[in-house]
């Protein structure tokens, strides 16, 4: 493949779709693989834009026909990346970005170890809950059990962060978008020798700071808040007890 394959995973509601859509406004040459799913469309989602929405029968038929590069069951629905997305990006010479869960990312990594993987974290459970709830409200449907299911899976998904080359904490949106853009540009520079002009040094620094091995200090409070390091987080993980507050963004530096 001429282009680079980027895998991006995150607990639901962390802001990965928002980051990907902002990135694609800033950078050309990055295609987004539209996944197939058996989940029902949410809010303003359209078939062929966010996802190809399908039935379980049709999805299973596609599995038998080996149409998927990877597929997995997430929150009770099937999701998969069509091999065709990869072929199209390859023939266009574009990079390809897959928004996939931790199981799908593991499957792709096993087949394509050269893929660049990025894990996005919300700053803490409370912010995650607020984002999920605000999104549901904006879509006009607040399904408490679905919300709770997604929140309770978050810590388990985050436990996989070590399998990812880069880590982003999506606190301030503009900064996270700039970090994602820096990762893509830095990888183009390292792999393809693509020039990144006068911004190059800064871009390489920003990307390097997001490499997993360089994020330990920044990650510590996030992991603690999700109960992954130590046990100081148990109170914060009690999502249900808190009243909703507008999300306050804070600098995590
Ligand atoms: P995901 O794709 O990871 O499930 P979304 O991109 O749908 O998450 O984001 C969930 C919600 O959080 C959306 O309402 C989005 O507008 C909001 N959001 C995303 N990133 C930020 C951020 N950095 N600050 C505040 N809100 C955000
Ligand atoms: P949502 O229902 O919120 O759109 O997505 C739920 C989860 O499914 C997210 O973690 C998202 O990354 C994941 N997902 C979306 N598309 C795919 C896919 O093609 N394959 C896999 N394995 N996961 C996907």
Strand order of the largest sheet: 2-7-1-8-9
Per CATH, what is the topology? Rossmann fold
Give the H and E element order: EHEEEHEEHEHEHHEHHH
Number of strands: 9
Shape, per Cα inertia axes = globular
The count of domains is 1
User: What is the CA-based Rg, rounded?
Assistant: 18 Å
Q: What ligands can be seen in this structure?
A: adenosine-5'-diphosphate, guanosine-5'-monophosphate
Distance N terminus to C terminus?
36 Å
Query: How many separate helices?
Result: 9
* Mean pLDDT reading: 89
Largest sheet: 5 strands, parallel
CATH class: Alpha Beta
Helical fraction: 40-55%
Uncertain runs are 232-236, 248-253
Task: Please give the structural blueprint.
Blueprint: E1 5-9, H1 16-26, E2 30-32, E3 35-37, E4 51-53, H2 56-64, E5 68-74, E6 77-82, H3 83-92, E7 95-99, H4 102-111, E8 116-121, H5 125-138, H6 144-158, E9 166-169, H7 173-192, H8 200-209, H9 216-225
Parallel strand pairs: 1-7, 1-8, 2-7, 3-4, 8-9
Antiparallel strand pairs: 3-6, 5-6
Helix pairs in contact: 1-7, 7-8
Bound molecules: adenosine-5'-diphosphate and guanosine-5'-monophosphate.
Adenosine-5'-diphosphate is lined by residues 10, 12-18, 131, 134-135, 138, 170, 173, 176, 247, 249.
Overview of this protein structure:
This protein is α/β, with parallel strands linked by helices. 43% of the residues lie in helices and 17% in strands. The protein contains nine helices and nine strands. The termini are far apart.
